[in-house]
Design goal:
Elements (H helix, E strand, L loop, with lengths): L1 H7 L4 H13 L7 E7 L2 E8 L1 E5 L4 E6 L3 E3 L8 H15 L4 E5 L2 H4 L5 E2 L5 E2 L10 E5 L9 E4 L2 H5 L13 H10 L7 H9 L3 E4 L3 H7 L6 E3 L4 H5 L17 E4 L5 H12 L4 E3 L3 H7 L10 E3 L1
Parallel strand pairs: 4-6, 8-10, 11-12, 11-13, 12-15, 13-14
Antiparallel strand pairs: 1-2, 2-5, 3-4, 3-10, 6-9, 7-9
Helix pairs in contact: 1-2
Length: 301
């Protein structure tokens, strides 16, 4: 296993190999799940799921961390890493584990069901972990997700394997949007209409000019983006009457489905865990033949 990580992580390989060694020896990281991939009789990949703790208001909760995942360079891009992750998550689910957390690329890990952890009220163990990189897979969706701070086992700190030392990568607008969307189900126009029928709040953040051009979405509440969080915060004195609790389902609309993704991510981060947005925005709503009107906007100031 050490040889795999030395090759997979380049100049950091020796440190990662030592991290694996010490995590497997550390009682605080037990029980860990360690899986290997073999091809042609040769070990080509390894993933470790050590135990960690979530420091919640009620108590310390046992969780798992996915770290590290290493694949020999010549086997990267072959699905080896994905197979290790899927097998590990399946095994942990069978064992009754509730949460798996990691630091990594949302573009890669979203396919396995990982989503932004801070949006569910889980804080990273270090400010050097970019918010978009801190992710969680919920293995027991039938149970509430405890809020709290992730506490890594000591070897992560000994080997300086937490967060980034060279600064947070610059994602740009498109990269940030993609990262915030990762792992979050977004709704088609038909799904958004069905959500509204079952009581979800459709929140229209378009400008007056955009609404005049495209038309009004029947039943939507028009809220200016600059006050959105305060209007939907059930604990705020500035909330609207419909903001009754943190379990309210919210679907954010914008013109084309870009700024709505950022707005929905902000709502999730503050505690509205059922907030999402409309794929393609009101343009897609119109293209799907769903109703629009020229009057009757329900504007909330």
């Amino acid at each position: 296993m050490a040889a795999v990580h030395r090759a997979a992580f380049g100049t950091d390989g020796e440190s990662v190999a030592a991290l694996v060694r010490d995590l497997r020896r550390d009682p605080a990281a037990a029980p860990s799940l360690s899986l290997v991939a073999v091809a042609g009789g040769k070990l080509v990949g390894h993933v470790l799921f050590p135990a960690a703790r979530l420091d919640a208001p009620d108590r310390l909760h046992s969780v798992r961390v996915l770290s590290p995942l290493g694949v020999l360079p010549e086997h990267q891009g072959t699905g080896t890493g994905a197979a290790l992750v899927r097998r590990g998550l399946a095994e942990l689910t069978a064992r009754g584990e509730r949460l798996v957390l990691l630091e990594g690329s949302p573009r890669y890990y979203a396919r396995f069901g990982f989503r932004n952890a801070e949006a569910l009220g889980i804080r990273p163990p270090s400010l050097r972990i970019p918010p978009w990189a801190f992710q969680v897979a919920v293995l027991r969706p039938d149970l509430p997700v405890p809020s709290g701070t992730l506490v890594y086992p000591q070897p992560f700190w000994v080997h300086d394997a937490v967060g980034l030392r060279d600064g947070v990568p610059r994602l740009g607008a498109d990269g940030l949007t993609a990262a915030l969307r990762a792992g979050t189900p977004r709704l088609t126009p038909e799904e958004a209409l069905a959500a509204a029928d079952r009581g979800a709040l459709l929140i229209d953040t378009r400008t007056p000019e955009q609404r005049a051009e495209q038309g009004e979405v029947p039943g939507a509440l028009v809220i200016d983006r600059t006050v959105l969080e305060w209007r939907l915060d059930p604990s705020s004195d500035a909330r609207i009457p419909e903001a009754t609790d943190w379990d309210v389902e919210v679907v954010v609309l914008c013109r084309q489905g870009y700024s709505s993704s950022l707005a929905a991510a902000s709502l999730r981060a503050m505690g509205l865990h059922r907030a999402t947005d409309l794929v393609g925005g009101v343009e897609a709503w119109d293209a799907a033949g769903l109703p629009l009107t020229s009057h009757g906007a329900d504007v909330r100031r």
